Amino acid sequence: MSVHGLLLAAGAGSRMGLPKALVVDGAGEPWLARSVDVLHDGGCEQVTVVLGAAVEEAVLLLDGRGADVVVAHDWASGMSASLRAGLASLGEVDAALVHLVDLPDVTAQVVARVLASGTGPGSLARAAYDGLPGHPVLLGREHWDEAAGTAAGDQGARDYLHAHDVLLVECGDLARGQDVDRPL
Predict the structure, then answer these.
(1) How many Å apart are CA 73 and CA 52, to the nearest integer?
(2) What does residue 32 show for φ and ψ, rounded to 5 degrees?
(3) In the chain, what's the furthest Cα-to-Cα distance?
(4) pLDDT bucket at 1, cuts 50 / 70 / 90
(5) Which domains does the chain have, with CATH numbers?
(6) Which one of 22-26, 32-36, 155-159 scores highest in mean pLDDT?
(7) Average pLDDT score over residue span 158-178
């Protein structure tokens, strides 16, 4: 079964003060590059990064990371635009593992654990942190059209996931899974 990592990193990061794709942690590591590495190291053979704000600067941070780039031209309308652009760009794969750039404590071990839940075209799973659903989210190909079609604004596929039986994969022992919206 083939799973493609899909990293959503298109937003302007208004609360952060800069696009999250451009954030560099205290050790000098860009979140964008780190997130691509986490997806690869966790088991995604291919990774696509969806960008929008500050595309040119963000692409420079991906040098040598082996990731494809897709631009969500309507990125300002929210995460749903990034999800639709990303899913539409993927080739013949069985599933997409959707991850967000602003989750710096999510590790390759989290990705691997979610992928271990099953990666077929009908798969629908997501990481959970102390029982609370989070990212990454595994979307089998059978779910793409409806998930993209119901995605709205900055909610992404939240409504679709709430309406379906999603396997929660507990990862609270590995990470907190909390997004970072403001400078540390």
Answers:
(1) 6
(2) -60, -50
(3) 40
(4) low
(5) 3-170 (3.90.550.10)
(6) 32-36
(7) 96
